[in-house]
Amino acid sequence: MSIDSGDPLERMTPAELVGLVRTLIGEVTRLRAENEKVTGAFAKLRVEHQAVKDELARLKKLPPRPPQRPSGMDKAADRPDSQVNAPKGGRSTRRPDRATRAMMRLSFRTCF
After folding, report:
1. Which of 1, 18, 60, 82 sits most deeply, having the most CB atoms within 10 A of its CB?
2. What's the sign of the alpha-carbon dihedral 11, 16, 20, 25?
3. pTM score
4. Half-sphere exposure (Cβ direction) of 86: Cα atoms closer than 13 Å
């Protein structure tokens, strides 16, 4: 690397870099706090919007919304890894194949 590098960060002293990092950490902290405020306001607006939709449906004499049930994706995300890789139930692997079942039926019919 040469002294006349085009990257301004390489020309900064360690003290200047520490100051820059502190400034960036402060900016990230400020943005996180602002994001939390906006997220809270958005959640309140979503609840208010749903209440207005329900009121409008009531005034139009529409049927009420069905109760909202969890989708099941939450259950899948909460399962421990041991259950994720566990074999699922189903047909037994010891079940005779089609040819064997046909032979068993023929032999059963000939006995009676």
Report:
1. 18
2. positive
3. 0.46
4. 9
